[in-house]
């Protein structure tokens, strides 16, 4: 398959792209440090990415960000960071990408455990992750040409404990190879409309 990995320079995306490259043609995309540059907060940039890359069979997004802030302090602007980037950015990858992807292709987005297992300061990401899961379930019912879409929802990845582990007290870190399996199940398997939870 020809697979686009968006967020290919990130903690999850780099490991994922390296794994997929053993078996597939992988096109690596991200905002600053990849072969193909794309800003997922900008629909025009997403369109330009698809025009540049040409036909493909699967798109996996492990991209986007949101802000950590406590409920007592979070601002509307901080909420919009995650909405514009992780939420709408990934949704736009599928909405725009559906017009470029090959028949029976698949989209895999990334949500996360905070959709159902909140932590202090994670409220905006709980909202964004839930939105991605809801979009996945609903959009799968309407996609045409045999297209599929799933979301992978990882727990905190072992490789990220040093950087963000303090925000996840009591969460058991998930080995990277298990997280990668979730993406492989989505892209190489037959599931659609599913939230593939990788919490352990
Ligand atoms: N790591 C975890 O434990 C964990 C757990 C659950 C869910 N998640 C979710 O999984 C996703 C990836 O996590 P990660 O830890 O791998 O993050 P990361 O290391 O911060 O990597 C983020 C990736 O997204 C790219 N990116 C950021 N903003 C972008 C934009 N506007 N347009 C295009 N690319 C953009 C970055 O590219 P550049 O560096 O080139 O800018 C980078 O490749 C995130 O959505 C995160 O919320 C992560």
What do you see in this structure?
The protein is 39% helix and 16% strand. The protein has six helices and seven strands, in the order βαββαβαβαβααβ. It has helices at 11-20, 43-53, 76-97, 123-140, 161-164, 176-188, and strands spanning 2-6, 25-30, 36-37, 58-61, 106-110, 148-154, 195-198. Helix 1 (11-20) links the parallel strand 1 and strand 2 (25-30). Bound molecules: NADP nicotinamide-adenine-dinucleotide phosphate. NADP nicotinamide-adenine-dinucleotide phosphate binds next to helix 1 and helix 3.
Task: Considering the chains and any ligands shown, give keywords for the structure.
alpha/beta; 200 residues; 6 helices; binds NADP nicotinamide-adenine-dinucleotide phosphate; single chain; 7-stranded parallel sheet
- Name every ligand kind in the structure: NADP nicotinamide-adenine-dinucleotide phosphate
Helical run tally: 6
Q: What is the gyration radius calculated from CA atoms?
A: 16 Å
Secondary-structure element order, as H and E? EHEEHEHEHEHHE
Low-confidence parts lasting 5 or more residues at pLDDT below 50? none
Quick rundown:
The chain has helices at 11-20, 43-53, 76-97, 123-140, 161-164, 176-188, and strands at 2-6, 25-30, 36-37, 58-61, 106-110, 148-154, 195-198. It contains 6 helices and 7 strands. The protein is α/β, with parallel strands linked by helices and 200 residues long.
